[in-house]
Design brief:
Strand order of the largest sheet: 1-4-3-2-5-6
Bound molecules: pantoate
CATH architecture of the largest domain: 3-Layer(aba) Sandwich
CATH topology of the largest domain: Rossmann fold
CATH class of the largest domain: Alpha Beta
Number of strands: 9
Strand content: 15-25%
Radius of gyration: 19 Å
Helix content: 25-40%
Number of helices: 11
Structural class: alpha/beta
Distance between the termini: 41 Å
Order of helices and strands: EHEHEHHEHHHEHEHHHEEE
CATH superfamily of the largest domain: HUPs
Number of domains: 2
Length: 279
């Protein structure tokens, strides 16, 4: 596995490789877990070269404390990627990604006004800044994102269209712990009891899936919120049942062809997100 920290060196290496190979890209913020490894596996199966970036992007954090606390495990991540068969790891310093302050403001219409966008204003603008910059550096044929960040996937697909990029966005399914808890780098910050209780989040979402279409939307939504909040360790920030295309809440099961439930839940200071396709 080759390691790069400088943009110019990575670009020059990739331009050699791209002559006769396809390049796949998995952007990450490190603290790698099985969810990331499933993206790496998918990338390896579809592309000749797998590039993984590790960069904790300051512009997407709306809370300084969350940025400071975000787990950084670069050495362990390198070993994990080596074993996973990654070809190139790119772990730049902040100045490499943002030699100048990125002042770009993206317009995502209603897509970033709801859910994560509503509770973390500016978050998706930061995601779009860093992902567009990384796409510009890596110029991947295909890029791989996890379904866990459901709204992020919509934003990135929209950004790819807006910027006329040619990379194909491949979305990979959520990987769950045995308890059902969606894998996340933030899980390692949970206490033992929080981690156990956090299984109630996916429990509530799968409860909605069982009830979908037969029970009114508001009724199942309220019951799912009640189930999560019944744990003294958890507090729902939002739980929305939405049209998968517009991300706007639906009030009836026939209002959209594809419907998802998405939630963000606080477990103490740690914020967890999850989603399940209902229809
Ligand atoms: O999903 C993430 O880990 C991040 O939002 C991403 C896509 C790597 C951008 O920093």
């Amino acid at each position: 596995m080759e390691k790069f920290i400088k943009v110019a060196e990575l670009k020059s290496r990739l331009s050699e490789l791209r002559k006769d190979k396809t390049v796949g890209f998995v952007p990450t913020m490190g603290a790698l877990h099985q969810g990331h490894l499933s993206l790496v596996r998918q990338c390896r199966s579809m592309c000749d070269i797998t590039v993984v970036s590790i960069f904790v992007n300051p512009t997407q954090f709306t809370d300084k404390e969350d940025y400071r606390r975000y787990p950084r495990t670069l050495e362990a991540d390198g070993e994990i990627l080596e074993h996973a068969g990654c070809d190139i790891v790119f772990a730049p310093a902040e100045e490499e990604i943002y030699p100048e302050k990125d002042e770009r403001i993206f317009d995502f219409g209603e897509l970033d006004k709801v859910m994560e966008g509503k509770f973390r204003p500016g978050h998706f603008n930061g995601v779009a800044q860093v992902v567009s910059r990384l796409f510009d550096i890596v110029n991947p044929d295909k890029s791989f994102f996890g379904q866990k960040d459901f709204q992020q996937v919509s934003i990135i697909k929209n950004m790819v269209r807006q910027l006329n990029l040619t990379t194909e966005t491949v979305v990979c399914p959520i990987v769950r712990e045995q308890s059902g808890l969606a894998m996340s780098s933030r899980n390692m910050l949970l206490t033992e009891i929080q981690r156990k209780e956090a299984a109630k989040i996916s429990g509530a979402l799968f409860y909605i899936k069982e009830q979908a279409v037969t029970t009114p939307v508001n009724e199942v939504r309220d019951e799912a919120i009640r189930r999560i909040n019944s744990s003294p360790e958890l507090e729902v920030e939002y739980l929305e049942i939405v049209d998968a295309n517009t991300l706007q809440p639906v009030s009836g099961w026939d209002e959209a062809a594809e419907i998802f439930v998405c939630t963000a839940v606080h477990a103490g200071k740690i914020r967890l997100i999850d989603n399940v396709q209902l229809k």
